[in-house]
Amino acid sequence: MLGLLGVGASLAQPWAIGKLIEAAGGGASMIRPIAQLVGLFCAGALFSSLQAYVIGRAGENIVYDVRHILTGRLLRADLTAFGKRPQGDIFTRTVTDTALVKIALSQSLAQLIISGATVIGGVVLMFILDLWLMVITISCLGVASITSIALARKLRKVALENQDDTGEFASDVQRVLSALPTVKASRAEPREAARIGKLADKARRSGIRVNAYNALLMPSMNVGTQGALAVVVGVGMSWVARGEMDMASLTTFIMYLFQLVSPLVMFFMGVGQFVQGRAAVQRVDELARLPQEGNESADAAGPVPLGPLAPHRPAVEFHDVRFAYRRGKQEEKSQVLHGVSFSVPARGLTAVVGPSGAGKTTMFQLIERFYAADGGRVQLGGQNIEALPLDTVRGLVGYVQQDSAAMRGTVRENLTYANPHAGEDAIQEAVEMAGLTSVIANLPQGLDTELGDQGSGLSGGQRQRLCIARTLLQKPAVMLLDEATSNLDSDSERDFRDVLRRVSRQCAVIAIAHRISTVIDADKIVVMEGGRVRATGVHRDLMEHDELYRRLAGSQLHAEPGVIAPATGPVRVEPWAPPPSFAFGWPPYVGLTEQTLQLRPIRSEERW
Ligand SMILES: Nc1ncnc2c1ncn2[C@@H]1O[C@H](COP(=O)(O)OP(=O)(O)OP(=O)(O)O)[C@@H](O)[C@H]1O
User: DSSP secondary-structure letter at 578?
Assistant: First the structure.
């Protein structure tokens, strides 16, 4: 509305100038026309600056709303759908494309409306002033408008390409930066620089095409209006000379034509911006449509009260659970769990063992409801996990992941992440239980020491203990530990076993374990192989009856002197030796003898 009032004020200005010319020519008082003109100038300036402020504010509100809704949907996105998109692309769409949406939905839309209204108003007034001059003007502008519309269409296409290219570039930068130590250790910097350089170049080339079409858009309109101006001045002046038109009307007409130039150019620039913004809207919209996790009917009811699960019934039950990951655009299935059934008591330690790739972590992810089972039933405290609100499930289940996820922020923020209201005593207790007391005491600012991305600033084992403490603070009913002790030294692991014993008196602890010491202690052991439960029992029975378990206990589980012997008699641990030679030409294994440990130059035939 403010914009349209501004348009009204500027459209009235040539009319006021005409009146001024008439007054000057007729020798009448010029005070009134000058006052009218000044009033119109001031009103026009006031309305357009107010409109610019209001539109700018609306734009910021729009971008805030879009980002707020989008991040909410990203955080609640289904992991399968989320995992298919490169993170850099998600980042570009959330940050850069939302800014373009702001331009499209506020600035350029307002520009289109205001300059469109100015053009229409001007054209109508010019028609009233002189029909034939207007016909001449429209024919010149018509050609320019058709060219501009064709250019705007092309612009939208290249803008979409450029935004995709920028997304691809951002994804690759993110991929490399998140694995920078691996890149350096593999001496892959030149390769990566070349690869990223190619993507940057692709974005540069499509960016240049966007600029080329943008650059053509304005001059094509300018040529049309300048041509129209030349013809109007020529024809109009000859009519004035012949006395068929008065000078005031021609001046007013030319003023309107001048006034038309800028809004027309702005209109087509607005079209350009709008089409680029529409491409961004399309990309943001695609991201916002990512499938969401959770069960709407269960979640709508809100979280059910948390508390320890009843001690007399199993905490977790798997009944014939089948699950396949979906990969790629075609959603090809890779079946991982083939009818898994077992139960976990509400108290005590249950260890899950099995060869790599057996499906142990996948099982945990189904308990956390990161993914939904394709068949069968997962139950928590006797209730189907799918029927419980997600918030309740994740409040009951604490998860220490395999790769000990810690985040940028202080140690305290990391510790209280799952329970932000934890008191100082509870924090100290969790720190103590996870064996972090001396680690934190040695940090420069104790609990308030800042950690870098992924918790850098702590060792792998310390990060692992931090994650364990975080889960302890959550006081879960079911605690999932995915190889949580793999980075701990023997002393810390022994201490942690005591912690596990204490914690498992309060809740169900399920641990994927590769250390025989953790497994021996377990009240129940689940042996998995190839996505199936092969055997369950306690250490002694499994050593007697299960061939795979015996093998794992002897090799894959990290044997520790004096641990296996009391339960079963000595287990022979074969020393590891690689095969005689690998197909890709690794030199034959010779064994570490005194001779091979001596440094000597490598002969050319030994290189690989
Ligand atoms: N996100 C995923 N998408 C597709 N397949 C996956 C995904 N995660 C795991 N897999 C596959 O599922 C199978 C089981 O993986 P899982 O991580 O559950 O095994 P695991 O028993 O925990 O192994 P490990 O002891 O090595 O951690 C593997 O074959 C793996 O390739």
Answer: -
Please, how many CA atoms are within 13 Å of residue 597, restricted to the half-sphere of its CB? 3
d(CA 440, CA 12) in angstroms, rounded, equals 74
Q: Which of 212, 357, 316, 356 is nearest to 272 (CA)?
A: 212
User: CB count, 10 Å around CB of 127?
Assistant: 14
Residue 152 tokens read as 């705007």
Domains of the chain, earliest start first: 2-288 (1.20.1560.10), 347-359+389-559 (3.40.50.300)
> Are 264 and 140 spatial neighbours (Cβ–Cβ below 8 Å)?
no
Q: Is 361 in the pocket of ligand 1 (CB under 6 A)?
A: yes
- Amino acid in position 337: L
Task: Tell me, using a 6 A CB cutoff, whether residue 334 lines ligand 1.
Answer: yes
- Distance, CA of 551 to CA of 543 (rounded, Å): 9
* pLDDT tens sequence across 255-267: 888 777 778 777 8
Q: Do the beta carbons of residue 463 and residue 455 sit within 8 Å?
A: yes
Residue where the block lists tokens 């803008």: 159
Strand partners, 77: 292
* pLDDT given for residue 362 in this prediction: 93
**Residue pair 406/455 in contact by the 8 Å Cβ criterion:** yes
CA of 358, closest atom in ligand 1 = 21
Question: At what angle are helices 2-26 and 247-288 packed, to 10 degrees?
Answer: 170
Task: For residue range 117-140, list pLDDT tens digits in order.
Answer: 888 888 888 888 888 888 888 887
Residue matched to tokens 């499509």: 206
CA of 362 to the centre of ligand 1 (A): 6
The DSSP secondary structure of 81-99, one letter per residue, reads HHHTS-HHHHHHIIIIIHH
d(CA 512, CA 516): 11
Identify the three-state secondary structure at position 510: strand
Q: Is the CB of 557 under 6 A from ligand 1?
A: no
Q: Tens digit of pLDDT for each residue in 6-44?
A: 888 888 888 888 888 888 888 888 888 889 889 988 998
Tokens 């499994």 found at: 542
